[in-house]
Design goal:
- The protein is α/β, with parallel strands linked by helices.
- It has helices at about 5-10, 25-35, 80-90, 100-105, 125-130, 150-155, 180-195, 225-235; strands at about 40-50, 60-65, 75-80, 95, 110-115, 160-165, 170-175, 210-215, 220.
- Helix 2 packs across helix 7 (about 180-195).
């Protein structure tokens, strides 16, 4: 903790590092220890008992956060004809295959790309641009679909994607410090329920090993995972 500034150290004093808090208690602590002058993001970190080196133990998916993310999401849809019109009617910010050339020319002013399956062949050349930024449409994430209207609505409403990293951790943003505690609790529960449902059938032993919640700049608060640990084991 010596490497942190005074505000962080003062905030950390309010948290018992040896304790495991109930989700609502942890959320209240995160809100009370956020000290930045901006509206910090509330983040969840989950340590899983999986080995991501094995393809059958990769944990990834999407979840729609019931209270939204608090972030304005700019959606680009690559589609033609009726599907392009559906995307526009559903609130997509940018629509059309002409955007492919714009991306090749350096344009990246969007947060999520959705594409219909028949247009994916045109996106192969964009892999080196979109891949490292996590912007390439993917069927598992629901961003390659003919149901573009639903995909746009869900993305705008608070759909997030998660994926386990090489160390077996999953990180996700579940809202802002300014959210009501009830809203953050709803989002936390929705996210954790989806993580439990995502348990690989090949995962043995303890699946959910640790869960912590924090604001962007604040200290982490460990959460009592007894209920989630048993849920993850029962599957």
């Amino acid at each position: 903790m010596a490497d942190h500034g005074k505000k962080y150290r003062d905030a950390a004093k309010k948290i018992d590092e040896t304790a495991r808090y109930q989700p609502r208690q942890a959320i209240d602590l995160v809100k009370s220890t956020a000290y930045a002058k901006f509206d910090e993001t509330v983040e969840v970190a989950v340590r899983l008992g999986v080995d991501p080196r094995h393809a059958d133990q990769l944990v990834r998916g999407t979840v729609v956060l019931p209270a939204g993310t608090g972030k304005l999401v700019r959606v680009l849809v690559i589609a033609v004809g009726e599907k392009a019109r559906e995307a526009e009617a559903s609130g997509a910010d940018f629509v059309g295959v002409e955007n492919i050339q714009k991306i090749k020319d350096g344009w990246l002013d969007f947060d999520v790309m959705i594409a219909t399956p028949d247009q994916m062949g045109q996106l192969g050349a964009l892999g080196r641009i979109l891949g490292p930024r996590g912007l390439m449409p993917n069927p598992k994430a629901g961003t390659v679909t003919f149901d573009v209207a639903r995909a746009v609505r869900e993305t705008k409403a608070g759909k997030i994607e998660y994926r386990v990293d090489k160390a077996g951790n999953v990180h996700a943003a579940i809202g802002k410090v300014s959210f009501a505690p009830e809203a953050l609790e709803q989002n936390f529960k929705a996210f954790m329920d989806q993580i439990v449902r995502s348990k690989p059938t090949t995962s043995k032993g303890v699946y959910i090993r640790n869960v912590a919640i924090s604001s962007s700049m604040g200290p982490g608060v460990n959460i009592d995972i007894t209920a989630y640990r048993s849920a993850g084991t029962e599957r």
